[in-house]
TrEMBL record:
Region (Disordered): 1-23, 547-576
Transmembrane segments: none
The protein's name in its UniProt record: FAD/NAD(P)-binding protein
Superkingdom as given in the UniProt entry: Bacteria
Xref: InterPro entries: FAD/NAD-bd_sf, HpyO/CreE_NAD-binding, L-asp_N-monooxygenase_NS-form
Location of the FAD-dependent urate hydroxylase HpyO/Asp monooxygenase CreE-like FAD/NAD(P)-binding domain: 25-184
Amino acid sequence: MSRPAPGDRPAPGDRPAPGDRPALVVVGAGPRGTGLLERLAANAPELYGGSGLDIHLVDPHPPGPGRIWRAEQSPLLWMNSHAEDVTMFTDDTVEMAGPVRPGPTLHEWAGLDGSTFAERPVQGAYLRWVYERAVAQLPADVVVHHHARHAVRVDGPPGGRQRVWLQGRERPLLADLVVLTLGHLDAEPDDEQRELSAYAREHGLVHLPPDFTADSDLSRLRPGEPVLVRGLGLAFVDLMALLTEGRGGRYDGDTYVPSGREPVLYVGSRRGVPYHAKIGYDWTGDRPPLPRFFGPAETEALLARPDGFDFRRDVWPLVEKELGFAHYHRLFTAHPERVTGDWAAFEARYATAGPDERAVLVAAAVPDPADRLDLAALDRPLDGIRYGSPEELQEGLRRYVEADLRRRHDPAHSPDLAVFLALLSVYGQLVRLGDIGGWWHGFFSYLASGPPGPRLRQLLALSRAGVVRFLGAGLSVTAEDGVFRARSAGVPDTVVEARTLVEARLPYPTVERTRDPLLRALHADGAAATPDGLLAVDRTDGRVLDRDGRPHPRRFALGPHTDARGSGAFTRPRTGGVAFRQNDATARAVLTFLRAPGESAAPHRPLLEESSR
C-alpha cells in the first residue's frame, strides 16, 4: 500500500503521539516474514483488538517469495522436497499457544501430484498466495505497507520507538517493535576465499566464491574448459542443471545429449559423494514413538547444566541413540525375518545399554551387518577407499550413486525412512539448544535433505557423457603456478588443473562477515553472536540478546542467521514444525506488547513460556 505510513512521523518517544498508531517493522518479506505475518493474523483476534496497527514489510524483493523463491529464475531449478511435503500452515502437531489455521500444502494448492518436485517459481507463486491470504485475514484496522528497499540500520533507545533506516530514503521508519526475518544472507569472503580471488585476478583466472547459484555469473564458465567444483550438495545440483540443460543440452532417457556449450565439471568434496537421494516410497505401518531418548526433558537437562554442554560429549550420544532406536524399531516391526528375538526384549536392553553394550546387542540381534545402523560409515562412505586410476574412480562413484538410488526407492530398506523421521525429531530438540556448530547441519542435510532421485539419475548420465568428472573424497584445492590444482584421497597421485574454480555452497550466515549492513551494525552496537557467528536470540520468543545475555525489549529475529534457526526452508505437514512454533511465540509476544506499547518494555513472560512448551 502506498499511503504515507504513520511510522514516518518524527519525534520518537516512549509512547506514540496522540492519535498515532502502533507500528511494527518486519525486515525481510520472504517465507519467514510471511510465516510471521500468518501467525500475527491468526493470533490477532485473541491478543489485539481495535487500536489499529501499521505493519511495514521491508524487502526489495516481492513479499511472499522474497529473493530465493522469486518468479524471475530458471524453471530448471526445482524444489528439493516433494510438493506434498511443503506447507506454510500449522496443524495440531505444532506445540504452540496460538490457534491452528489449516491451509493447503503446495501440491494441494497447485494441483500437482504429491510426489512432484515443483519448479521454484511455482513455489514462489504459492508463497505469494500465502502472503496475500495472511494480509486478507488481518483485522480491518491493521494495514500492511511494503517498502521495496533494503534496510541498512536500526537504532533507538530500548525504552522508546526504534528507527529503521532504508536505503535511498532520508527519513527512517519509526517502529514500536522490529522483527528481523532476513532469510539466507550473502557474506564477505573469508581469508581463504579472499586469497583465491586475489590469485585469480592476478593470473587471469576465474574464481566464483560461495553464492546462491541462481545469482552467480555463470557466463564466465566457457564451453569445453575444465572447471573445478568444490561441493557436491544442493548448490552443485543447481549448478549442474544450469550449465547443462541451461545451455541447451537434453536428456534422452538415461543418456545426456550435449549441446557443446557445457564446461567439464571436475567435482569433489570432503565426503566425495552427493547427498543421499530423497526417499521414494511412502510410510506404512507403525511409526517409531519419537522422541524416545532425546526429547524435551533431555534438552532441558542440557540447558540447565551450569557449566554448559559439549556437542560431541553430551549431545551426540543422545542423537545417536535416538536414531538407532528409530532404525531398529522399524527393522523389528516391519522386517522381522531379518532379526532374531522380539522387539520388546531388544528395546528393554537397548534402553539401558551404553554404546559398547548396544554394539554387542545389535550384533547378536541383527545378523546381517548391512541391516545395522553405522552412522560413522554413512558420514564418510569413501574413507580408506583408493582407486587405481581416475577412470576406476568414475566407475566406483557411479556404482555408489546407483546403489544409493536403488536403496532410497526400495521399501525393503524402510529403516532409512524411520531414521529420517528421527532426524526431524532430533532437529526439533537441537534448535532449542542454540548454536551447536556447523557439523550437525551438514550431516543432517547430507542424510535428510538430498536431491530428488531424478537429479541423481541426471548426474549419472552426465558422468557417462564426460560432462561431469568425479574427484572423490578429501578434496584439496591449491593455487599455484598460475592455475588451480585439485587433489583427492581417492587417487592420491592424480592432479587436475583448471583455470576456473567454483565454490558450490551457500555463504555461511555469520554476523561478522554478512553483507547485510543492518545486521553488521546491530552486532557492532552490542548484539551478541555465538562462537559460530550466529545472532543470539532469546529461546522463548526470539528477542535479540546483547553480550550480557539480556533480551532487547523491542527487537526480535527469526531465521537461519540466528542461533534458533529451524531445519530446512519449509515444513513437512504433521511434523510439529519448529519454525511454526517460533513464529507463533514471536507473533504473540509482538501483539501482547503492541496492545499498549508505552506501558512496559518487558515481555509478557507467562504467555511466552506457555507458547514454548
